[in-house]
Amino acid sequence: MAKSWQLQEAKNQFSTVVEKALTDGYQVVTRHGQPAVVVMSVEEFRKLKPRAQPLSRFLADSPLGALGNLPTRSRDLPRKIDLWAGCLIPASFASRPGRLPRPASRPGSTDNPRSLCI
User: Fold this and answer.
1) At a CB cut-off of 8 Å and minimum separation 6, what does 91 contact?
2) d(CA 48, CA 17)
3) Domain spans of the chain?
4) What is the pLDDT along the chain (118 residues), one digit of tens a residue?
């Protein structure tokens, strides 16, 4: 069973706290009557600390791994999308995106190409 130590007592008898952690198990140190920290042996700590592993191994070991192979992703090329469809901008401007007319100074003006897209 773990012993509880007040902080001041643990500071004054730190060697004893460490020795008890090595022989009797973890030791709890309290501050203002509330548990604050635990002193434990490295062996106990290593048992608690999860081992690092690749994500692929983690997923394979998960309950979903028992389902077998997951569906594969489609390797089809993405469909072509015409980003200029529905806009009233002349095709000559659409073929040269760097040459779009400058936006008008007034919002909603027909000179502004952004206001012409539906």
Assistant:
1) 84
2) 20
3) 4-48
4) 678 999 999 999 999 999 999 999 999 999 999 999 999 999 999 888 877 888 878 877 877 767 766 667 777 877 777 776 666 655 555 555 555 555 444 555 555 555 555 4
**Distance from C-alpha of 66 to C-alpha of 30, rounded to nearest angstrom:** 44
Closest CA to 27 of 57, 2, 62: 2
Task: Give 79's contacts (C-beta < 8 A, 6+ positions apart).
Answer: none
Which residue stretches of 1-118 are H helix? 7-12, 14-24, 42-48, 55-61, 91-94, 113-116
Class of domain 4-48: alpha beta
The token pair at 3 is 């012993």
Q: Is the pTM of this model over 0.85?
A: no
